[in-house]
Amino acid sequence: MTTPEPEPETTEKRRLFGRRSTDAPGATRTTAPSGPVVPPTATPAQGTPAQGTPAQGRPAQGTPAPGRRVPAAAQTERSARRELARAARARKRFEKDEVKRFTRRSRSRRTVWLSVGGVFVVLGALLAVAVFSPLLALRTVQVDGASRVSAAEVQEAVESQLGTSLALIDYGTITDQLAKFPLIRSYVTELVPPNTLVIHLVERAPVGAVVNGAEFELLDPAGIVVQTSETRPEGVPLIDVGTEDADSVAYRSVVEVLLSLPAELLAQVDTISATTKDNVTFSLRGVGQTVVWGSSDRSDYKASVLAGIVAQQEPDALVEFDVSAPGSVVVTPR
């Protein structure tokens, strides 16, 4: 039997492990050294990098060469470190979320209290500016709606409030001063920042005139004397209630009838009289047509009926209209 010829040994294998002998009979086996064989140290030639200095194009000592597989133990250690870091970050996020969840109510209460406190601070600052700032002091008084009343006299009556902060104006004093003007029925004040007060007046409107001695007095519906004149005022009827005064039932009945008449019909009334609440009569301008009104009850209905009947009559017809029973109007020639 032929013995297989051994493989030719390479120089590198011989250098590292020594020559391997064959198992031929009578041959002596050479045992390879148990540890790695350290190659002899060679003196670097000129221009060759010294030992310990990485040669150009080669990785430094301890750095795995490109393409060389990293040991599994090192990969496992790196993976474990990454997992630990990831777990630590997740734990921190969880703890932060838990703190937020358990402190949500207290944070909400704190936010509410801070908001309320901020609102009060702002309101206090605005109030202090409105009360103490000279920029909001009263400097101008304007009067609106004055016809029979002198606007200058009204301004003079309230000038004591000039220089006062708009928030501290004494409206009681203004009321007392304007009460001295009998022609003012009512008024409304309006503040126009930064320093103006506007007074809107509603004057008393005369509803009729009464004779008082040698003078004529214009009265409003409440019986307040609006104006006096030596001659009869134009545009208002002459009221005759006999010996009754402006507080009587007769005067109130006359006023109620006058206020119920349409404007066109009211302008035609010349005189109106009553001694009780049930015997109101008046005459129209022109030829002297008369109207028997009766009581002041259902005055609005009577006024509408009378306006229609008067429109159907000739202006120069001397007649008497009886609307005391508005359902059956009686027109009687005079």
Automatic annotation (TrEMBL):
The chain crosses the membrane at residues 111-132. Residues 1-90 are annotated as: Disordered. One of its GO terms (biological process) is cell division. Its main location: membrane. Residues 136-204 form the POTRA domain. InterPro entries: FtsQ_DivIB (IPR050487), POTRA (IPR034746), POTRA_FtsQ_type (IPR013685). Keywords: Cell cycle, Cell division, Cell membrane, Membrane, Transmembrane, Transmembrane helix. The keyword tRNA processing does not apply. Residues 43-57 have a biased composition (Low complexity). One of its GO terms (cellular component) is plasma membrane. It is found in: Membrane. This is Cell division protein FtsQ. It comes from Conyzicola lurida.
